[in-house]
Amino acid sequence: MSDEEHHFESKADAGASKTYPQQAGTIRKNGYIVIKNRPCKVVEVSTSKTGKHGHAKCHFVAIDIFNAKKLEDIVPSSHNCDVPHVTRTDYQLIDISEDGFVSLLTENGNTKDDLRLPTDETLLAQIKDGFAEGKDLVVTVMSAMGEEQICALKDIGPK
After folding, report:
1. What Gene Ontology terms for biological process does this UniProt record contain (predicted)?
2. Domain-by-domain residue ranges, the chain?
């Protein structure tokens, strides 16, 4: 037995994984997939026949869910692809700061102040106009792979 002390440093973060594996052949249109380390929504899937090397290939065309860029990937249908854990959460909008951050009310009554206004012009205008008119607004925040962004807006009436 050795009498030395061993210290291990962990560089990994604890908690749930940002993605989970799924067989490429089972991913369908409107599903999610990770392409080039970005979470994407699948808009088109085409599968080629098995070739002389024995693998059918899936050709994915997908749109990045945060910056709307189009990405493509070709994967053998029997191989696993990473699929992001995508969650949508509704928060009530409390305030919009001058530097572009929003203050949101969570379900347990706390505030969430680390989100920026969306970059989508129409959604941005709807949020700013509705807030200026004093309406009660609920924003939907989509989060995947450690990123969050406001993706939708609901008007729940005047304050």
Report:
1. positive regulation of translational elongation; positive regulation of translational termination; translational elongation
2. 19-84, 87-158
